[in-house]
Amino acid sequence: MPTVEELYRNYGILADATEQVGQHKDAYQLILDGVKGGTKEKRLAAQFIPKFFKHFPELADSAINAQLDLCEDEDVSIRRQAIKELPQFATGENLPRVADILTQLLQTDDSAEFNLVNNALLSIFKMDAKGTLGGLFSQILQGEDIVRERAIKFLSTKLKTLPDEVLTKEVEELILTESKKVLEDVTGEEFVLFMKILSGLKSLQTVSGRQQLVELVAEQADLEQTFNPSDPDCVDRLLQCTRQAVPLFSKNVHSTRFVTYFCEQVLPNLSSLTTPVEGLDIQLEVLKLLAEMSSFCGDMEKLETNLRKLFDKLLEYMPLPPEEAENGENAGNEEPKLQFSYVECLLYSFHQLGRKLPDFLTAKLNAEKLKDFKIRLQYFARGLQVYIRQLRLALQGKTGEALKTEENKIKVVALKITNNINVLIKDLFHIPPSYKSTVTLSWKPVQKVEIGQKRASEDTTSGSPPKKSPAGPKRDARQIYNPPSGKYSSNLGNFNYDSCSEEAEGSVPRSGLWS
């Protein structure tokens, strides 16, 4: 084994040889042997081996293996030095192998070492993106679980930091191709990360690109299979996939397949749904997703059938008024609870799909069914008016900090819900029913458009990608207001009816803050 002095002497030989350095193979071999020495010898070898690596292609394998031995040394300082120098070995056909090695090294628990590996990977990414992706995806598909997990997270966090000249169209196509292979067998968390990776690619921000992503999500959601409401994994997979699909939908990328599946398979089983997520109101979560998707539903084959299923589900949450005794008092029947959160979602979805079949209520329902629905609407509207007045009174005069208390935040959201329902009910009381009003769902932020500002088209099929619109709201943000059944429901007494057949407003009264 060479000594420190011998290592320095042979380094000098190679350094002084300039253009004839390749003729001193023995000197380089002695430096390679330095990895078998003590701590000082190994530290020198970690620096000297990469410096002259390119001059000895016949010793490439030996040199890479020697450096790899140093990357796995017990001494953390030696490991860090060896990892730092690894990008110098990433030349030609050696690059995918170096990328593979660095990907495996992501499993380190040493934070400084982990950062060095990340930096080294980014460094070789800029040299040859395709070769680096080859090493990363090789480990994602075949590596150990911890390596797979960290390689996926590396892609999800670092790709967006790379410049356009690195992430070319060809590189993005490779990412999509390799990702499809991985998506054949992924966990829920991995699927979310890959959707984050793919949705960030410029080439997939066009209409056709987003359509590809929707098809990927639909395949993952297994929409061809019969839905099993009693299988928590089946339910969770559908929700995870739908959450990923929702931000992709637009006027040109339709949600029809998902809306159809929800109407045909999920709504009839709403009360039977099970979920592995503790504390999640699974029924409300499903109805929220359906409401968000309904705005972008295209032409539906079985529109009338699915609209009827949606209508029947809405009726379940729109109770008939309790019977009254001859003296006008309650005959003893318990007052029904009004579940405003559920009704907002169902009524909004019905309103959106009803636009596609505007004569559904008047021509597709028999007279008794329509009369029954109007009685339910009227009864719900009476309770709604009272509750809106109560909320407005409770929030009257409150501004700034006063509106930020938990209690008042809840009231503000409740007021949004009730205002939305009020506008939609007024539309349905028109003769014939109208579907013209526009509301912003209570859990969604209000879109502010500057006066005079033209809205840029969000879709493009040209080579220049559009400005990226903000991603859909995070799940946590959407879950802030998940009232359990009845939390904001009132037992209705004998209310004075405020006519709901007056002219429908064109937009929702936007009171208070969005939380």
UniProtKB/TrEMBL annotation:
Q: What family classification does the UniProt entry report for this protein?
A: Belongs to the API5 family.
What Gene Ontology terms for biological process does this UniProt record contain? Answer: fibroblast apoptotic process; negative regulation of apoptotic process; negative regulation of fibroblast apoptotic process
Name the gene that codes for it. Answer: TTC17
Where is the organism placed in the taxonomic lineage, from the top? Eukaryota, Metazoa, Chordata, Craniata, Vertebrata
Query: InterPro entries, per this entry?
Result: API5, ARM-like, ARM-type_fold
Question: Which SUPFAM superfamilies does this one have?
Answer: ARM repeat (SSF48371)
- Provide a GO CC annotation, any one: nuclear speck
Which keywords, in A-to-Z order, does the entry hold? Apoptosis, Nucleus, Repeat
> What is the protein name given in its UniProt record?
Apoptosis inhibitor 5
- Disordered as annotated region, ranges: 452-494
Oligomeric state and interaction partners are given as:
Monomer. Interacts with FGF2 and ACIN1.
Which intervals carry biased composition (Low complexity)? Answer: 462-472
UniProt GO MF annotations: fibroblast growth factor binding; RNA binding
Per the UniProt record, the source organism is Equus caballus (Horse)
Its subcellular locations are: Nucleus
Q: What is its main location?
A: nucleus
